[in-house]
Specification:
Structural class of chain B: alpha/beta
Number of strands of chain B: 5
Strand content of chain A: 25-35%
Radius of gyration of chain B: 12 Å
Helix content of chain B: 40-55%
Distance between the termini of chain B: 22 Å
CATH architecture of chain B: 2-Layer Sandwich
Structural class of chain A: alpha+beta
Order of helices and strands of chain A: EHHEEHHEE
Shape of chain B: globular
Largest sheet of chain A: 5 strands, antiparallel
Number of helices of chain A: 4
CATH architecture of chain A: 2-Layer Sandwich
Strand content of chain B: 35-45%
Largest interface: A-B, 27 and 21 residues
CATH superfamily of chain A: Histidine kinase-like ATPase, C-terminal domain
Helix content of chain A: 25-40%
Oligomer: heterodimer
Number of strands of chain A: 5
CATH superfamily of chain B: STAS domain
Number of domains of chain B: 1
Number of helices of chain B: 3
Distance between the termini of chain A: 35 Å
CATH class of chain B: Alpha Beta
Chain lengths: 148, 101
């Protein structure tokens, strides 16, 4: 049975690099209700930054397009984040997920997917060429005892 | 993203502060390139103490600075790396290529 959603946010932004900071900041604010540690919050911000940057750089290389970010709190303290675009799509997802693989030139490192995989518990990439890409990732935020 | 620097005796220290992401990376790379060309340092310290966030764009910045320093027969050391940035650099295995202090 799929876990139930207990809360969510959805926002859409244009694929401008200035929105990378907004996207990771908004998701971090939303995630705060799960009382994450600073390290967990840093991991979440980093993963969101990578996913949104991928959409900006690779989905819409020569144009501006829509990016929709959704963050959900699921039962059992799971934070699920999806980043969706309607851009070019990834020709070979398996290859794109390899460390150091990039088509983004010298200012990219090819480590985006590797970081998303390492910093989150799960990562799913669905992409159709010419239609777009949806990256979905989740992380369980372990409950902490407060006041200690 | 802000950058300050100090150069003396062909030693260059570049201090970064703020958030280093893809949006900031291109300008930062250009600025570092120019600084290296102007100062021709033998040793460059990239001081990350003031960074409040860094994603994989920072990896590209570090690797490029390292390549430029090697071209000058010099070396690059990354110092005062905050915890979050360190996790990104470690995930990329950068400690095998660059001196991280």
């Amino acid at each position: 049975m799929k876990p139930k959603t207990t809360n969510y946010i959805v926002f859409e932004c244009l694929s401008r690099s200035a929105n990378e900071a907004f996207a990771r900041g908004a998701v971090a604010c939303f995630a705060a209700q799960l009382d994450p540690t600073l390290e967990e919050l840093g991991d979440i911000k980093t993963a969101v930054s990578e996913a949104v940057t991928n959409a900006i750089v690779h989905a819409y290389p020569d144009t501006l397009g829509r990016i929709v970010v959704r963050a959900r709190v699921l039962e059992e303290d799971i934070l699920e984040i999806s980043v969706r675009d309607w851009g070019r799509g990834i020709p070979d997802v398996k290859q794109a997920r390899q460390p150091l693989f990039t088509t983004g030139g010298e200012e990219r490192s090819g480590m985006g997917f590797t970081i998303m995989e390492s910093f989150m518990d799960s990562l799913t990439v669905r992409s159709v060429q010419g239609k777009g890409t949806r990256v979905t990732m989740s992380r369980r935020i372990k409950p902490r005892r407060t006041g200690q | 993203m802000e950058m300050k620097y100090r150069a003396e005796n062909r030693q260059l220290t570049i201090r970064l502060s703020g958030e280093l992401d893809h949006h900031a990376a291109k300008d930062l790379m250009d600025s570092i390139d120019r600084l290296l060309e102007q100062n021709l340092p033998v040793k460059t310290f990239l001081d990350m103490e003031g960074l409040t966030f860094m994603d994989s764009s920072g990896i590209a910045v570090v690797l490029r600075a390292k390549r430029r320093m090697e071209a000058l027969s010099g070396s690059l050391v990354v110092i005062n790396i905050p915890r979050q940035a360190a996790r990104v650099l470690e995930t990329a295995g950068l400690n095998r290529y660059v001196e991280l202090v």
